[in-house]
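Quick one before lunch.
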Amino acid sequence: MPLHPFHGIEPRGLMAVLRSPLFEGRFGRMFRNLPPFLPSNEALDALARQMVEPEPQPGQDDTTGDNPDIPAGFTYFGQFVDHDLTFDPTSQLQRDNDPEALVDFRTPRFDLDSVYGRGPDDQPFLYGDDGVHLLIGKNKVGEEDLPRNGKGRALLGDARNDENLIVSGLALGLLKYHNRVVDTPPLATLPAEKRFDEGRRIVRWHYQWAVVHDFLSRLVGNEVIENILRPVSFKVPAGPEAKAINTLQVVLKFFHFSKRAFMPVEFSVGAYRFGHSMVRGEYELNDQVVDIPIFAKPPEEDLRGFRERPPGHVIQWARFFKFVESRLDIQPSRKIDTKLAFGLSILPEAVAKEIHALAERDLKRGKALGLPSGQAIARAMGIPEDLILRGARLRPLPDKLLEAFGEDTPLFFYVLKEAEVLSQGRKLGPVGGRIVAEVLIGLLSADPASYLAIQPTWRPKAGEFGAPRDGEFTVADLLRFARVTIG
Ligand code: HEM
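Model of the protoporphyrin IX containing FE complex:
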């Protein structure tokens, strides 16, 4: 399979997971014993049509679908995290030799290879002459942008981070954060190789901290995180009395792997696609660029990517994340519910070929991968019947659709519906939240270079690399330290 730079293209090895229950490769399953849920394509088409918000009309703002608890920037931070996890850093030769990723694959990691690629020795075109700084580009009017080749294609570890102008802005923020970290004492005076390696470690650990404590905590709530990332203590002899040592232990109930961690399809094809419902129809980037659709039919201006940042499209990040120093209003994300923005039903060809409606793609991919129904997974998790959504709780789905599906619904739809019914669309529900939290924390602990694997009690330190207080570091702190435009 040729490598495609787009978020919408099926990753290497995804379909191979279907064939064998003993399969061990890049993708795998959390709930191997449950039967696939295989509704008719007509039923899925009809469900997908129900999942689209009306086309936005000029001057009409539908704020009822907004989520006051999660600022809009986290939608794209979530997309960035997806790219980081699903990025395939193996070389083209390895991909050709092992198209199904059964042998040659790296386990999914939050290691920012989507930014660093395979490093300055293997991919020097991403780096400055010193092999320490990442290249930053400029558009034709001199505003900062991702570095690009003559055709406007971004030079990035993972080209999918150029899919829209918001995620590409975040990728630029990460490049700039790295460059500032390596310019900060004591790193600034280290020999080049050490300076790069240490800079990359610091960037990764701070980013990983923000993934768990800023992003995931908003999505699932701290109780779920604390149930997985548990404080434990043990005693060591220290002089006349034993001393208690406090550390953290990761306890996973449903995501099990032995030698190598893998990407579960229940996460990548089901639960983690919740982010598609958080996308707003329109955004404000700055004072001048307002109410611009995420995707529109040409020639209307939109936020599509894979091109140089248009002049004037600089992002004021205080419109996307909470910055205490700014008075700008933050745009909220949309609720995690069963409605997706209209723009996601008319995806451009560069983002998705043939099927241009994202909900339809999500539902059909779930069927193609033989995912169990949401209800079957809820039962396998031991969720009590009064929290499992069926019948009346799935309304206002039309009766015809309820009949077509029976008591069960696709996992993707289920995760959105339970968030809508049980959490008012403000965060994920019991099934979606548990899958997302176990996989994110499980993969982090399985990554041999993560802070959780190397030094589980590590915390960001006040005043260092953007952390305002001990144990506090958010996406906004990262962007502030990176010196992007805040507004
Ligand atoms: C404007 C924003 C976005 C667009 C246009 C978009 C588009 C797409 C498309 C076309 C696919 C492939 C569907 C298929 O054929 O299976 C996809 C897959 C996926 N999306 Fe998104 N997406 C967006 C944002 C997000 C966000 C915010 C998240 C999560 C927070 C997310 C998570 C995923 C995941 C997990 C997959 C499957 C794995 C992968 O291929 O990376 N996406 N998206």
